[in-house]
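Hello, quick one for you while I still have it in my head. No rush at all, and the record is pasted right below.
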Amino acid sequence: MDLQEELARVAAAYGGQGSPVLHPTRTDVVVMRRGEVVVKAHSARDEERPLRLRLRAAAAASLTGVLLAPLDPEVQVVGDRLVTVWPAGRPVAHDAPETAPWEEGARLLARLHAVPLTILPPLPPAAGPARVARAVARMPGDGPVQGLIRRTFAELPEPAPPSHATGLPAHGDWHLGQLVHRGQWLLIDIDDLGTGDPAWDLARPAAWFAAGLLEPAVWERFLGAYLASGGPALGPGDPWERLDLPARALTVQLAAVAVANADRDGRELDEVEHSLIEACGRIVGLHHRLT
């Protein structure tokens, strides 16, 4: 029995009915929905113990209404893959950007960041920062674009020790695809959930805004909702004091992933991907103007 057949069987065991439907991903993760049950085979790179800790945190009562709770708080092993089981929800509609729930996502992040670690099960470090190095390391080729991305990564400054935003819960890789609606909007995808600097959870929209890919009005709505909800990641004063380094790092990550995807698909970079490369060029230029 292959992996997809095994996942369909697991879904049926939790009440999933009807024909299995695969959700496309750009990694080795396999997500299958069967009726009201979603089964996820995690990346072959994922380790069992950190995933078990993250899954138990997602099931904790203190995160009710923030994270989608799993149908089963234990990780299963199917073949050589770690598997988790979830209730189905409605994702953000890609064909109606004007209705995207930016404010709801910001409020959920603020609530997550405010949860005391003392009332959560133990968590591993948030995996967000490590994703940047992995993306650059996996990027194929040695052309000028790859050289620019690697140079930008090498010239990122070391993070300053956070004075107020360390040791808090962090989602690790937030974007609109990490939301589903099930009676209310909820955060999903716990693969990078952990402790760390929650400013990294705001880094992807900040990077999009800085690269000209997110409208200023949308960014202001998102940031304003986070601050109005008491989100602790940014503190008083200029939010870019905390966001600058994470946003630069996410720009590098997104650019490296774009190059890898284009190489895998045998195509040229598209307009959005070119904007990320250009943003890397601006980051390098800024670094040399300041040094």
User: Anything to note?
Assistant: Residues 240-265 form the longest helix (26 residues). Confidence is low (pLDDT under 50) at residues 161-165.
